[in-house]
Request: fold
Amino acid sequence: MAEPTIVPDSEQRGALAVLPPTLRDLAQLARFDRPIGAWLLFWPGAWAIALAGAVARAWPLLLWFALGAVAMRGAGCVYNDIVDRALDRRVERTRGRPLASGRVSLRTAWAWLVALCLVGLVVLVNLGSLLAQIVALASLALVAAYPFMKRITWWPQAWLGLVFSWAALVGWCAARPAAFTALPWLEAARPGLWLYVGSIFWVIGYDTVYALQDIEDDALAGVKSSARALGRHARAGVAACFALALAGWGLALWSVRPDPIALAALLPMAAHLGWQVLALRVADPCDALAKFRSNRFAGLLLFLACLAVGSAG
Reply:
């Protein structure tokens, strides 16, 4: 049997398949069946905690960030589907989503969004740092604006980068709150800021790969994306984004440990990102999804680099 040309937006298998229909639809609405997004939201915060050398002494932070990533990624997906329900009906990959298809009502979607945000509130309270809590709350404006960016700019992936990378700032503030009273703020924040900058370009790169799946449908629906903007230069654009990401992360590691050995910790991540670019089949939606999902492993590689440098810094 030939491979499908359209990658399904939600896969009803495993534990999801045995849930009652209502719970299954709510799980799909929050993308619990597609955990890659939660991983990608979690990693920047984990990097910051590791680079701060706080994994051993503040390991509960990693657990809170993991719970927050699942809840807030789910909340973001529900909000996105509420805003995009009409557009989703016009795209082959997304027309089967619970809200777009009518299986979940708008009122139920709003109630589910509130429930997920309450979980996020519990995480916020347990960050242990007022500064981290304030920084986390500041992200809400970016999150609220994101679904509208594909109607406004050809680069909604850049806005997504601002949103999905925010945990790097929160994680750095949560892991090193004392530094902000002992040092000038810019000096105290510098490694976290560079992690954030690097992560923004990483997100633009991998989400451009993800957007390659929908180029034709997006063109028909009038949806803008970096994949459409780059066109035949998509591979070069992704490569440039990944190169800038590595530069930002290199500066973050150098800020903690100004030693060439620290930069060598980035080599596995650089090799992985290089493989993504070279092996990417731009016209193959299934391959684009596979390369996008491989960034879960890429996040682990950078976490190990940050852990090594943060522990020795």
In short: The two ends are 54 Å apart (CA to CA). Residues 91 and 211 are 12 Å apart (CA to CA).
